[in-house]
Amino acid sequence: METVRSRFLKVFRGEQPTDRLPVMEWASWWDLTVDRWKGEGLPDHLDKTGIKQYFGLDIDQQLWFPQINPSVKRPPHGQNWISNPADYDALRPNFYPQSISYDRELWRQISDRQAKGDCVVWITLEGFFWWPRVLFGIEPHLFAFYDEPKLMHRINQDNLEYMMRCLEDFCSICVPDFMTFAEDMSYNHGPMISKACFDEFLAPYYRQIIPHIRKLGITPMMDSDGDVEPMLAWLEEVGMAGILPLERMAGVDVARIRKNHPELLLIGGFDKTVMHCGEAAIRAEFERLLPVMRSGYFVPSVDHQTPPAVSIPDYQLYLTLLREYCSRAVH
Fold it and tell me: Where are the alpha helices (DSSP H) in the chain?
Protein backbone atom coordinates (compact mmCIF):
# COMPACT_ATOMS: atom_id res chain seq x y z
CA MET A 1 0.00 0.00 0.00
CA GLU A 2 1.36 3.39 -0.99
CA THR A 3 1.90 6.14 1.55
CA VAL A 4 2.46 9.88 1.25
CA ARG A 5 6.18 9.30 1.56
CA SER A 6 6.45 6.17 -0.62
CA ARG A 7 4.79 7.96 -3.55
CA PHE A 8 7.14 10.90 -3.22
CA LEU A 9 10.29 8.78 -2.94
CA LYS A 10 9.29 6.65 -5.92
CA VAL A 11 8.88 9.74 -8.08
CA PHE A 12 12.27 11.00 -6.92
CA ARG A 13 13.79 7.67 -8.01
CA GLY A 14 12.20 7.98 -11.44
CA GLU A 15 9.62 5.32 -10.63
CA GLN A 16 5.84 5.67 -10.70
CA PRO A 17 3.66 4.91 -7.66
CA THR A 18 1.00 2.26 -8.13
CA ASP A 19 -1.97 4.54 -7.56
CA ARG A 20 -1.13 8.21 -8.19
CA LEU A 21 1.54 10.87 -8.03
CA PRO A 22 1.87 12.99 -4.86
CA VAL A 23 -0.82 15.63 -4.41
CA MET A 24 1.21 18.31 -2.70
CA GLU A 25 1.44 22.06 -2.21
CA TRP A 26 5.09 22.85 -1.55
CA ALA A 27 4.78 26.66 -1.45
CA SER A 28 1.48 27.11 0.38
CA TRP A 29 -0.38 30.37 -0.16
CA TRP A 30 -0.09 34.13 0.06
CA ASP A 31 -1.24 35.59 3.38
CA LEU A 32 -3.83 37.54 1.40
CA THR A 33 -5.09 34.27 -0.07
CA VAL A 34 -5.54 32.74 3.37
CA ASP A 35 -7.28 35.92 4.56
CA ARG A 36 -9.69 35.64 1.64
CA TRP A 37 -10.37 31.99 2.38
CA LYS A 38 -11.12 32.75 6.02
CA GLY A 39 -13.78 35.13 4.76
CA GLU A 40 -15.12 32.26 2.66
CA GLY A 41 -15.34 29.80 5.55
CA LEU A 42 -11.82 28.45 6.14
CA PRO A 43 -11.52 27.85 9.92
CA ASP A 44 -9.55 30.69 11.47
CA HIS A 45 -7.39 28.58 13.78
CA LEU A 46 -5.69 26.41 11.15
CA ASP A 47 -1.92 26.57 10.70
CA LYS A 48 -0.14 25.67 7.45
CA THR A 49 -0.39 21.92 8.08
CA GLY A 50 -4.00 22.27 9.20
CA ILE A 51 -4.91 24.02 5.95
CA LYS A 52 -3.30 21.20 3.98
CA GLN A 53 -5.33 18.67 5.97
CA TYR A 54 -8.48 20.72 5.45
CA PHE A 55 -8.05 20.47 1.67
CA GLY A 56 -6.96 16.81 1.75
CA LEU A 57 -3.42 17.41 0.49
CA ASP A 58 -0.52 15.06 1.09
CA ILE A 59 1.43 16.42 4.05
CA ASP A 60 4.95 17.75 3.86
CA GLN A 61 6.84 19.31 6.76
CA GLN A 62 9.49 21.95 6.15
CA LEU A 63 12.06 23.55 8.45
CA TRP A 64 13.87 26.70 7.31
CA PHE A 65 17.21 27.41 9.00
CA PRO A 66 17.98 31.13 9.32
CA GLN A 67 21.54 32.43 9.62
CA ILE A 68 20.44 35.18 12.00
CA ASN A 69 19.95 34.83 15.75
CA PRO A 70 16.21 34.73 16.47
CA SER A 71 16.35 37.85 18.64
CA VAL A 72 17.80 39.99 15.82
CA LYS A 73 15.48 41.77 13.41
CA ARG A 74 16.30 41.53 9.73
CA PRO A 75 16.41 44.72 7.67
CA PRO A 76 13.50 45.32 5.26
CA HIS A 77 13.65 43.07 2.22
CA GLY A 78 16.26 44.26 -0.28
CA GLN A 79 17.94 46.82 1.97
CA ASN A 80 21.58 46.45 2.85
CA TRP A 81 23.10 45.59 6.20
CA ILE A 82 26.74 45.70 5.20
CA SER A 83 28.95 47.45 2.66
CA ASN A 84 32.45 46.31 3.64
CA PRO A 85 34.42 43.90 5.85
CA ALA A 86 34.23 46.19 8.88
CA ASP A 87 30.42 46.17 8.73
CA TYR A 88 30.43 42.37 8.51
CA ASP A 89 32.83 42.05 11.45
CA ALA A 90 30.60 44.30 13.56
CA LEU A 91 27.44 42.35 12.78
CA ARG A 92 28.84 38.85 12.59
CA PRO A 93 28.07 38.00 16.26
CA ASN A 94 24.39 38.18 15.27
CA PHE A 95 24.82 35.50 12.60
CA TYR A 96 25.33 31.70 12.47
CA PRO A 97 23.85 30.95 15.94
CA GLN A 98 25.78 28.40 17.95
CA SER A 99 22.55 27.10 19.44
CA ILE A 100 20.48 26.24 16.38
CA SER A 101 16.91 27.18 17.26
CA TYR A 102 14.03 24.82 16.47
CA ASP A 103 11.61 22.64 18.41
CA ARG A 104 13.49 19.36 18.71
CA GLU A 105 10.68 17.48 20.41
CA LEU A 106 8.25 18.48 17.67
CA TRP A 107 10.67 17.27 15.00
CA ARG A 108 11.15 13.96 16.81
CA GLN A 109 7.40 13.50 16.54
CA ILE A 110 7.44 14.49 12.88
CA SER A 111 10.29 12.03 12.29
CA ASP A 112 8.08 9.27 13.70
CA ARG A 113 5.30 10.24 11.29
CA GLN A 114 7.83 10.35 8.46
CA ALA A 115 8.99 6.82 9.34
CA LYS A 116 5.37 5.63 9.13
CA GLY A 117 5.05 7.20 5.69
CA ASP A 118 2.55 9.85 6.77
CA CYS A 119 4.57 12.86 5.62
CA VAL A 120 7.53 14.05 3.58
CA VAL A 121 10.20 16.05 5.41
CA TRP A 122 12.38 18.74 3.88
CA ILE A 123 14.59 21.56 5.05
CA THR A 124 15.74 24.82 3.52
CA LEU A 125 19.14 26.49 3.85
CA GLU A 126 19.78 30.05 2.68
CA GLY A 127 22.27 29.60 -0.13
CA PHE A 128 25.43 31.19 -1.44
CA PHE A 129 23.59 33.73 -3.60
CA TRP A 130 20.67 34.38 -1.23
CA TRP A 131 22.54 34.98 2.05
CA PRO A 132 25.08 37.52 0.70
CA ARG A 133 22.17 39.35 -0.92
CA VAL A 134 20.45 39.58 2.47
CA LEU A 135 23.60 41.22 3.82
CA PHE A 136 24.56 43.51 0.95
CA GLY A 137 21.06 44.38 -0.31
CA ILE A 138 19.73 43.49 -3.76
CA GLU A 139 21.57 45.95 -6.01
CA PRO A 140 24.79 46.33 -3.94
CA HIS A 141 25.06 42.54 -3.84
CA LEU A 142 25.47 42.37 -7.61
CA PHE A 143 28.25 44.95 -7.46
CA ALA A 144 29.87 43.12 -4.53
CA PHE A 145 30.92 40.22 -6.79
CA TYR A 146 33.37 42.73 -8.29
CA ASP A 147 33.88 45.25 -5.48
CA GLU A 148 34.17 42.89 -2.48
CA PRO A 149 35.21 39.47 -3.80
CA LYS A 150 37.20 38.51 -0.70
CA LEU A 151 34.30 39.40 1.56
CA MET A 152 31.91 37.45 -0.66
CA HIS A 153 34.08 34.35 -0.29
CA ARG A 154 34.38 34.89 3.46
CA ILE A 155 30.60 35.14 3.85
CA ASN A 156 30.06 31.98 1.82
CA GLN A 157 32.70 30.07 3.78
CA ASP A 158 31.05 31.11 7.06
CA ASN A 159 27.69 30.10 5.63
CA LEU A 160 29.05 26.75 4.50
CA GLU A 161 30.31 25.96 7.99
CA TYR A 162 26.97 26.97 9.50
CA MET A 163 25.08 24.79 7.01
CA MET A 164 27.22 21.82 7.97
CA ARG A 165 26.34 22.35 11.63
CA CYS A 166 22.64 22.63 10.80
CA LEU A 167 22.74 19.36 8.87
CA GLU A 168 24.61 17.53 11.62
CA ASP A 169 22.25 18.82 14.30
CA PHE A 170 19.00 18.16 12.46
CA CYS A 171 19.95 14.77 11.05
CA SER A 172 20.60 13.50 14.57
CA ILE A 173 16.82 13.85 15.02
CA CYS A 174 15.32 13.52 11.55
CA VAL A 175 16.85 12.87 8.12
CA PRO A 176 14.98 14.94 5.51
CA ASP A 177 13.80 13.34 2.29
CA PHE A 178 15.07 16.35 0.37
CA MET A 179 16.34 19.86 0.94
CA THR A 180 16.41 23.13 -0.93
CA PHE A 181 18.97 25.88 -1.18
CA ALA A 182 16.98 29.11 -1.17
CA GLU A 183 18.66 31.15 -3.91
CA ASP A 184 16.23 33.06 -6.19
CA MET A 185 19.10 33.79 -8.53
CA SER A 186 17.06 34.10 -11.75
CA TYR A 187 14.47 36.59 -12.90
CA ASN A 188 12.11 36.48 -15.87
CA HIS A 189 14.94 36.84 -18.39
CA GLY A 190 17.39 34.37 -16.88
CA PRO A 191 20.14 34.19 -14.24
CA MET A 192 21.19 37.38 -12.47
CA ILE A 193 24.86 36.37 -12.55
CA SER A 194 27.15 34.97 -15.21
CA LYS A 195 28.48 31.44 -15.40
CA ALA A 196 31.91 32.86 -14.51
CA CYS A 197 30.55 34.40 -11.29
CA PHE A 198 28.71 31.20 -10.46
CA ASP A 199 31.87 29.14 -10.96
CA GLU A 200 33.99 31.49 -8.84
CA PHE A 201 31.70 32.40 -5.97
CA LEU A 202 29.06 29.66 -5.61
CA ALA A 203 30.27 26.43 -7.19
CA PRO A 204 33.21 25.83 -4.80
CA TYR A 205 30.85 25.82 -1.83
CA TYR A 206 28.21 23.67 -3.51
CA ARG A 207 30.93 21.18 -4.38
CA GLN A 208 31.81 20.89 -0.70
CA ILE A 209 28.34 20.60 0.78
CA ILE A 210 26.37 18.67 -1.84
CA PRO A 211 28.42 15.44 -1.53
CA HIS A 212 27.90 15.67 2.23
CA ILE A 213 24.15 16.13 1.76
CA ARG A 214 23.96 13.13 -0.55
CA LYS A 215 26.03 11.02 1.87
CA LEU A 216 23.43 11.76 4.55
CA GLY A 217 20.74 10.35 2.24
CA ILE A 218 19.17 13.72 1.40
CA THR A 219 18.28 14.87 -2.12
CA PRO A 220 19.65 18.40 -2.82
CA MET A 221 17.54 20.82 -4.85
CA MET A 222 17.60 24.54 -5.61
CA ASP A 223 14.70 26.94 -5.09
CA SER A 224 14.95 29.75 -7.63
CA ASP A 225 12.23 31.83 -9.20
CA GLY A 226 12.34 33.17 -12.74
CA ASP A 227 13.73 31.60 -15.90
CA VAL A 228 16.04 28.92 -14.52
CA GLU A 229 16.55 26.96 -17.73
CA PRO A 230 19.86 28.63 -18.76
CA MET A 231 21.50 27.66 -15.46
CA LEU A 232 20.28 24.06 -15.11
CA ALA A 233 23.51 22.70 -16.57
CA TRP A 234 25.45 24.76 -14.01
CA LEU A 235 23.50 23.11 -11.21
CA GLU A 236 24.03 19.62 -12.57
CA GLU A 237 27.79 20.28 -12.75
CA VAL A 238 27.92 20.84 -8.97
CA GLY A 239 25.72 17.83 -8.17
CA MET A 240 22.32 19.46 -7.68
CA ALA A 241 19.53 16.92 -8.22
CA GLY A 242 16.61 19.19 -8.98
CA ILE A 243 14.90 22.56 -9.18
CA LEU A 244 11.66 24.26 -8.16
CA PRO A 245 9.24 26.09 -8.68
CA LEU A 246 9.46 26.29 -12.53
CA GLU A 247 7.53 29.50 -13.10
CA ARG A 248 5.52 29.42 -16.29
CA MET A 249 5.17 33.22 -16.47
CA ALA A 250 8.96 33.41 -16.76
CA GLY A 251 8.81 31.19 -19.84
CA VAL A 252 9.91 27.97 -18.13
CA ASP A 253 8.87 24.91 -20.17
CA VAL A 254 8.92 21.64 -18.22
CA ALA A 255 8.71 19.60 -21.43
CA ARG A 256 11.84 21.29 -22.76
CA ILE A 257 13.58 20.77 -19.43
CA ARG A 258 12.69 17.10 -19.47
CA LYS A 259 14.04 16.71 -23.01
CA ASN A 260 17.32 18.42 -22.14
CA HIS A 261 17.68 17.08 -18.58
CA PRO A 262 16.04 13.63 -18.52
CA GLU A 263 16.60 12.85 -14.83
CA LEU A 264 16.45 16.31 -13.25
CA LEU A 265 13.98 16.37 -10.36
CA LEU A 266 11.20 18.91 -10.79
CA ILE A 267 8.62 20.28 -8.36
CA GLY A 268 6.01 22.86 -9.33
CA GLY A 269 5.39 23.85 -12.94
CA PHE A 270 1.62 24.58 -12.82
CA ASP A 271 0.87 28.13 -13.98
CA LYS A 272 -0.69 29.82 -10.93
CA THR A 273 -2.22 32.54 -13.09
CA VAL A 274 -4.87 30.16 -14.52
CA MET A 275 -6.11 28.79 -11.19
CA HIS A 276 -9.07 31.20 -11.08
CA CYS A 277 -9.91 30.92 -14.79
CA GLY A 278 -12.25 27.93 -14.71
CA GLU A 279 -12.10 24.23 -15.50
CA ALA A 280 -11.16 24.50 -19.17
CA ALA A 281 -8.09 26.63 -18.42
CA ILE A 282 -6.99 24.47 -15.49
CA ARG A 283 -7.47 21.28 -17.49
CA ALA A 284 -5.51 22.70 -20.43
CA GLU A 285 -2.62 23.45 -18.09
CA PHE A 286 -2.65 19.89 -16.74
CA GLU A 287 -2.72 18.55 -20.30
CA ARG A 288 0.45 20.56 -20.94
CA LEU A 289 2.10 18.99 -17.90
CA LEU A 290 0.81 15.43 -18.29
CA PRO A 291 3.58 14.05 -20.55
CA VAL A 292 6.20 15.21 -18.06
CA MET A 293 4.14 13.84 -15.16
CA ARG A 294 4.31 10.48 -16.92
CA SER A 295 8.06 10.73 -17.45
CA GLY A 296 8.96 10.47 -13.76
CA TYR A 297 11.11 12.73 -11.61
CA PHE A 298 8.29 15.32 -11.43
CA VAL A 299 5.94 16.31 -8.61
CA PRO A 300 3.36 18.68 -10.15
CA SER A 301 2.36 21.63 -7.98
CA VAL A 302 1.65 25.34 -8.19
CA ASP A 303 4.64 27.19 -9.64
CA HIS A 304 4.66 29.49 -6.62
CA GLN A 305 2.31 30.55 -3.86
CA THR A 306 -1.39 30.40 -4.72
CA PRO A 307 -2.43 34.03 -5.37
CA PRO A 308 -5.35 35.83 -3.70
CA ALA A 309 -7.42 35.88 -6.91
CA VAL A 310 -8.10 32.18 -6.20
CA SER A 311 -11.26 31.50 -4.18
CA ILE A 312 -11.90 28.35 -2.16
CA PRO A 313 -14.11 26.92 -4.94
CA ASP A 314 -11.34 27.74 -7.46
CA TYR A 315 -8.77 25.97 -5.32
CA GLN A 316 -10.99 22.96 -4.72
CA LEU A 317 -11.55 22.65 -8.48
CA TYR A 318 -7.79 22.86 -9.05
CA LEU A 319 -7.24 20.09 -6.48
CA THR A 320 -9.97 17.91 -8.00
CA LEU A 321 -8.25 18.11 -11.37
CA LEU A 322 -4.78 17.69 -9.81
CA ARG A 323 -5.94 14.41 -8.27
CA GLU A 324 -7.44 13.31 -11.59
CA TYR A 325 -4.23 13.99 -13.52
CA CYS A 326 -1.98 12.54 -10.82
CA SER A 327 -3.94 9.31 -11.25
CA ARG A 328 -3.93 9.49 -15.06
CA ALA A 329 -0.16 9.93 -15.03
CA VAL A 330 0.37 6.40 -13.70
CA HIS A 331 -2.47 4.57 -15.51
Answer: 4-12, 31-39, 48-54, 85-91, 104-115, 130-136, 138-147, 149-171, 195-197, 203-215, 232-237, 254-260, 279-295, 312-328
